[in-house]
Amino acid sequence: MQRLISLRYSANLFRRPIPLPSTPLLQVRSMASETVALHKDPVTGEMVSKTELKRREKAREREAKKAEKAAAAPQKAPIASKSTAADEENLSPNQYYEIRSRHIQKLKETQNPNPYPHKFHVSISITDFIEKYGPPGKIEPGQKLDGVTEGLAGRIHNVRASGQNLRFYDLHGEGTKVQIMAAKQDAKDPDNFVANHEHFRRGDIVGVIGTPSRTKKGELSIAPSEMILLAPNLHQLPSAHFGLKDQETRYRKRYLDLIMNEDTRRIFITRSRIINYVRRFLDNLGFLEVETPMTSMIAGGATAKPFITHHNDLDLDLYLRIAPELYLKELVVGGLDRVYEIGRVFRNEGIDLTHNPEFTICEFYMAYADMYDIMDLTESLIEGMVKYLTGGKTTLEYHPEGKGSDKVYNLEFKRPWPRYDMIGTLEEKLGVKFPPSDTLHTEEANKFLRELCQKHNVECSEPRTNARLLDKLVGEFIEPLCISPAFIVGHPQVMSPLAKYHRSRPGLCERFEGFMCGKEFCNAYTELNDPFEQRLRFEEQLRQKEQGDDEAQGIDETFVDALEHGLPPTGGWGIGIDRLVMFLTDSTNIKEVLLFPAMKPIETPANTTGAIGPSGQV
């Protein structure tokens, strides 16, 4: 109070008018100093009276003694620390990121601790830890395995505090989790226990060195002597209760989807198992896995619109491959009788629930086999795969309207599968008689097919070629019959420029398509090996291309030349891995089975000029 009065007095002194206008300011100050002697405060630098200076010095002595006593007393954890993480949960994502980033930047400066260490020794995986120490009787409730030390690493998901001296964390890794029971009494540095644990947040990757133990309630845990921050998560994880549900975010930030959703992880593990099963199945039959070019001067091997790219050095436009078929058959000509390739193909088509511009395909070619051998092989492959995935069953459930919906398909994969003849089934369903199969390529047939589509309200955009009109009719009336796996056979030659003519039905070819859930998943031929006929088929495709069909092929002279050297009777087969994975994992959207699906760029005023990132993000 004395200091306040002094300050007020000084302030009023300089605000009050001075009745000596002719006296210089220096003289006024001189006169004041004669009246009141001022002394400099060595701490603040202020000029104060002798009384005020003594008061301040005594106050500082008292504060210094209090500080000494506080330093000598046992350190108490700050009361606010308990609620720091809880308070952060109420922040906006941007606020959380800023605060967390500042904290980590400070740790980078002080290196106490280093938030990005180079190495942590993991002595055992979380899965093996559970398998080794989890069996009943290995560790009794409330006990620890004294003398045993393990090093675990993973990502923190849930954080729970029980007072200042006991923290619980859920450590996730490899699709499983184990509890961390961090007690001050077990810590290597108990004096800094609270301070050390203030560094950890949900989403951080940590290393744990500790002893296998069980809580009193019997939950397997690790009691750490030391916890080390290995890689902090700067972003606020979605709520553990609500999780990550937004589809756009899940597809664009697949890493976050994998962190939060165990079902996503299961789908992609299943995908890997499916691809590995196909590879082992073919390897065991003596097939050789090969790799063929991704770019070529002609887009051949399938009926699809290609992507175009440019080779700068050659100043040459090239196509991304729509299929590896022609290259693989050239290898069979060269004497590699059984070859296959698993890889990406690119088709410049629409994006929908079952189509992505780039997708994974497996194609194989088997010398001295025909379509009937390949059908048997397909049934054996898929039935065995389903048994491998389900532990011996041949049935699966599929929800065509999404998981949790009432509509369910019970898929039966047991051999043999139903076989639908294309023309015969269409005649039965539509109640008409088709023109002779050897005339299905004519103008008269085109008129018949146009009228049939119009009568049954089947839409087909231009160009309305015979092949496209037939394909639309099949999609409307035959494909919906194929819920459990089935084959559609008896395709007209006009639909299959690379398939061999049918040995007993003129105008048709030896080809089958595999369908399930009303969608195609595989396609196979008895391959055309007559170079004269192949040239005629290519020329017909070229005519369709000139009519405006972007999906028709041109003439591949190199492939015709290869056929002229002799291709043995060969069966060829291709399967869409992504669509197969959809059906076997009960997924209705192809984006669910692609780690990084094609996405439309995010456009906002702030980022439309920025670079496009992975997964189509700007």
What does this structure look like?
By secondary structure, the protein is α+β, with helices and mostly antiparallel strands. Helices cover about 35% and strands about 20% of the residues. The chain has 18 helices and 20 strands. It has helices at about 1-15, 25-35, 50-70, 85-90, 95-110, 125-135, 195, 245-250, 255-260, 260-285, 325-335, 370-390, 420-430, 445-455, 465-475, 530-545, 555-565, 575-585; strands at about 40, 45-50, 150-160, 165-175, 175-185, 205-215, 220-230, 290, 295, 310, 315-320, 340-345, 360-365, 395-400, 410, 420, 485-490, 510-515, 520-525, 570-575. The strands form 5 sheets. The chain has an 8-stranded mixed β-sheet, sandwiched between helices. The chain is elongated and about 120 Å long. About 30% of the residues are buried.
Name the descriptors.
single chain, about 625 residues, alpha+beta, eight-stranded mixed β-sheet, five-stranded mixed β-barrel, about 35% helix, elongated
Query: How are the strands ordered across the major sheet?
Result: 8-12-13-20-19-18-17-16
- Please state the CA-atom Rg, rounded to the nearest Å: 38 Å
Q: Please mark out the parts with pLDDT under 50 across 5 or more consecutive residues, or reply none.
A: 1-35, 75-83
Distance between the termini: 62 Å
Question: How many individual helices?
Answer: 18
Helix content: 25-40%
For the residues shown, what is the average pLDDT?
87
